[in-house]
Specification:
104 residues; mainly alpha; Helix Hairpins; elongated
Length: 104
């Protein structure tokens, strides 16, 4: 039977982070960029919990950090959606390239 180790979790985390990074850099829609950032946060959560499970199994440091990351991600989504709504109301578009037009 195949034993799933730390390397498997880190490979999954690296793949998810790469997908999120590609999505954040290649998309123009602000909503798609926010979703890509969320994928990157989840990749970091997987890595933190995997390190906690395999390096120090008696401590819950990875899980605690993951809870903090989820909290920061929720705040980021709330702030990001507020900015997207403001951008849409001002310009009738959620194109990230038009975000600099909100000045003035």
């Amino acid at each position: 039977m195949l034993d799933i180790g730390l390397q498997h979790y880190l490979a999954l985390s690296a793949v998810l982070f790469s997908i999120g990074l590609f999505g954040a850099l290649s998309r123009r829609s602000a909503v798609a960029i926010l979703m890509a950032v969320e994928i990157m946060f989840n990749a970091v959560n997987i890595a933190m919990i995997a390190f906690s499970r395999f390096v120090t199994p008696t401590l819950l440091t990875g899980q605690v950090f993951a809870i903090f990351i989820v909290t920061v991600a929720a705040a980021e989504v709330a702030l990001g959606l507020a900015i997207v709504i403001s951008l849409y109301r001002a310009r009738e578009s959620v194109d990230a390239g038009e975000a600099n037009l909100m000045k003035g």
